[in-house]
Amino acid sequence: MPAVSVRDIRLDLFRGLALWFIFLDHIPTNIVSWLTVRNYGFSDATEIFVFISGYTAVIAYGRMLDKEGWPRTAARIYRRVWQLYVAHILLFVAFTAQIAWVSIARDAPALIEEMELLGLGQNPYRAILEAALLKFRPVNLDVLPLYIVLLAAFPWVLPVLVRWPWAVIAVSVILYVVTCRYNWSLPAYPDEKVWYFNPMAWQVVFHVGAACAVFGPGLSRLDRYRTPLTILAVAFVLFAALIALSWQYNPLERLIPTWVVRVIYPIDKTNIDVLRFLHFLAIAWLVRIAVPMDAPALKWPIWQPLRRCGEASLLIFCIGTFLALSGQVIVGHYEDSILSQILVSIVGIGIMCLAAYIAAWFKGGGTRMPPRLPVLAGASR
């Protein structure tokens, strides 16, 4: 497995960027979210996070499978699953308490309905049980349950993946197609709901990312088709940008032919519409071409906060989710003023970076003080 012997620092960098994007996108009416990919195409930061999660899962456990065998590898994976599950439950409790406190303090009961927590008040015992089963959760708490399910199935996929990655991709695509065709889904609570991120569909992003880690340098075979693939990727990204911007600007919407509208809509996120997946793959290809693994710019100090956030992804995701609601409340208090949106975004990213540096310091044994945050103000760029 040649890919797992070298740490690709792009993984931490772009996973950190995805976590920043998720935080910014979770603050409604946030003008700073125009810096994220969501407004310029079909996909968003979720695809980045899930793809890199699959890629890093192979890096973390592939060599262990070869050296220590399947039982120990599976045990390590399930220990990580348990950590993710505990983190989700703690985040659920903290997030729910935050929503309840804001709702009571500001006399805003509509917030509970907006965050989809009515089930907790209507039937608390059933809601607690369903939350423990990952079927009940407020808005913005859907990514971790998806990751938990995907990683829980990974011990059974990994031995096949490292030997026959194309077979795993084929089965994954078939499951994705069948799921979309027959609208398979996992039930959620209340009873009429389903999982916002359907694991049976989103697994294709995770497993394609994992397969790319197995292929490693073998992906360079695609370079013989670099020119046509790059042209296609650029064309598709521009087409997606036109469609996405037309959702915000009516003059652009009138430029879209009716037959195109009939073909592409609806662009489903729950079952990751194929246009979303293709858009992500196009971006991933262009990033691979523009930012090679050995690019000197990757080691510039200005990128270190992103890398630190990517290294502590679970912690930063939880903090970012909590901060996003705080930012929503603060921005709402100041009547969605642009200044409040910008300040909340900068302060939130600053807190995430500080937490990431502290986590790195503890991971290093806490023997020395964490390095000065380089260009914390640069987080707003």
Write up this protein.
There is one protein chain. With 381 residues, the chain is mainly α. Helices cover 67% and strands 0% of the residues. It contains 16 helices and no strands. It has helices spanning 9-25, 45-68, 70-105, 110-114, 118-122, 124-132, 143-161, 165-182, 199-215, 226-246, 250-253, 258-264, 274-290, 304-311, 313-333, 338-363. The relative contact order is 0.15. The model is unreliable at 373-381 (pLDDT under 50).
Number of helices: 16
- Quaternary structure annotation: single chain
Radius of gyration: 21 Å
How widely separated are the two ends?
A: 38 Å
Into which percentage range does the β-strand content fall?
under 5%
Mean residue pLDDT? 91
> How helix-rich are the residues, as a percent range?
55-70%
Q: Per the principal axes of the C-alpha atoms, what is the gross shape?
A: globular
State the total count of DSSP E strands: 0
Largest sheet: none
- Topology as a string of helices (H) and strands (E): HHHHHHHHHHHHHHHH
Low-pLDDT runs of 5+ residues are 373-381
Class per helix and strand makeup: mainly alpha
Structure summary:
The chain has 381 residues and is mainly α.
Record keyword descriptors for this entry.
mainly alpha; single chain; 67% helix; 381 residues; 0% strand; disordered C terminus
